[in-house]
Design a protein that fits this description.
This is Iron-containing alcohol dehydrogenase. The protein contains 13 helices and 8 strands. A hairpin with a 4-residue loop joins strand 6 and strand 7. It is globular, with a radius of gyration of 20 Å. It folds into 2 domains: 169 residues, Rossmann fold (3-Layer(aba) Sandwich), CATH 3.40.50.1970; 162 residues, Dehydroquinate synthase-like, alpha domain, CATH 1.20.1090. The strands form 2 sheets. Strands 1-8-5-4-2-3 form a 6-stranded parallel sheet, with helices on both faces. Strands 6-7 form a two-stranded antiparallel sheet. 44% of the residues lie in helices and 11% in strands. It is α/β, with parallel strands linked by helices.
Length: 381
């Protein structure tokens, strides 16, 4: 195990009563907050009313910025920063999925500086402080409520960049599994594939580490089992709870601590494609991962075999079947993701172009002009 520093100061409340802590915890962060949320879910589910009532009861005033898009955008973050500055907010409250929470992190950091927030993502400026952040996740997947990372898309050039900084760790996370039950099967599956990808990419790009390997495969197997249960019983609380907690643990730093340098190649490609085509992150990963796994299996068969054995231990009923068989990698939900086959050709063409398109600030693309010769990719609503 290699040396590491593990810094995690997020206070987590988990369970059916977690949201009851909202008013008290917000009051401890500031008397005026910026409330960020997505486009439809908060109002449709009645969650907006519950949150604003809790804030009012605690004596916390707020300003709202709703309509945050999937694949969060630079322009929306700039608008949120301007709103935070104009109103002198002291903290940020994010209610939604990974896109909302990532946007909130960018706003929290950008509100504390005079320069443009995109300079953080280009690696030109460092984050040295941020407004305190409280997260209420409504989707299990990104784990953004418990980690120090964020991703943002620049609509002007199609660049989608992720970065991490300890100041981006949320101060508080209120994790109620029941809040994830109203997002539907498609969004549930998108989140599950994202979490599996977090685990699998770290597993395959780092040296073997017995403790971390067992943690990763245990979480991965649990996620798959929960998805199978939720397909038949969408409101099953235990499965929702395990899926939400597994997604938080997968990218909290526990899984990668002691592994040394790790890479996220499938995510890098999904970011490049998502920045250009505005496709759902989970759907892109579902298309990319099977091909990437075949690529890795040909070069690191022992690592893929170790992953498969951890997820699918042999049982007497399986007889002589090899638990590391490539067929094991065809997790059924991947074949049912709403990204139709006609889109694959465009994805393949886009992949050829965007494999050369850097998504990290340390090595910017050679030209600010991004090719725009490909049509938008259709996907099933």
């Amino acid at each position: 195990m290699q040396p590491f520093v593990f810094h995690h100061n997020t206070k987590i409340f988990f369970g059916r009563t977690a949201l009851a802590r909202l008013g008290t915890e917000c009051a401890g962060l500031g008397k005026k907050v910026l409330l960020l949320y997505g486009r439809h879910h908060l109002h449709a589910s009645g969650l907006h009313r519950r949150i604003t009532q809790a804030l009012a009861t605690a004596g916390v005033s707020w300003v709202e910025y709703g309509g945050v898009r999937p694949n969060p955008t630079l322009n929306q973050v700039r608008d949120g920063i301007a709103l935070a500055r104009q109103n002198g907010v002291q903290a940020v409250v994010a209610v939604g999925g990974g896109s909302v929470m990532d946007s909130a992190k960018a706003v929290a950091a950008g509100a504390c500086v005079a320069h443009d927030v995109w300079l953080f993502f280009r690696g030109k400026k460092s984050i040295r402080q941020a407004l305190p952040l409280l997260c209420v996740p409504t989707v299990a997947g990104s784990g953004s409520e418990c980690n120090h990372g964020m991703v943002l898309t620049n609509e002007g050039n199609g660049q989608k960049i992720g970065l991490g900084n300890r100041h981006l760790l949320p101060a508080v996370a209120l994790m109620d599994p029941e809040l994830t039950g109203s997002v539907g099967w498609r969004q549930t599956l998108y989140g599950a594939v994202d979490t599996i990808s977090h685990l699998l990419e770290i597993f395959c790009t780092a040296d073997p580490a017995p403790l971390q390997d067992r943690l990763a495969t245990a979480l991965g197997g649990n996620i798959m089992a929960c998805c199978e249960k939720l397909r038949q019983h969408p409101t099953d609380y235990q499965s929702r709870a395990e899926l939400l907690w597994a997604s938080a643990l997968a990218l909290s730093g526990l899984n990668s601590a002691g592994r040394g340098r790790v890479n996220m190649p499938a995510h890098a490609l999904a970011h490049a494609l998502g920045g250009r085509y505005d496709l759902p992150h989970g759907a892109l990963l579902a298309v990319i991962l099977p091909a990437w796994l075949r690529f890795i299996a040909a070069r690191q068969p022992q690592r893929i075999a170790a992953w498969c054995r951890g997820l699918f231990p042999a049982t007497p009923a399986e007889g002589q079947q090899d638990p590391s068989s490539p067929a094991r990698m065809n997790w059924p939900p991947w074949s049912t993701m709403p990204c139709p086959r006609p889109a694959f050709g465009v994805l393949i063409t886009a992949t050829r172009i965007y494999c050369r398109f850097c998504t990290t600030p340390a090595k910017p693309p050679p030209s600010p002009t991004i090719p725009r010769t490909l049509p938008p990719v259709p996907y099933s609503k």
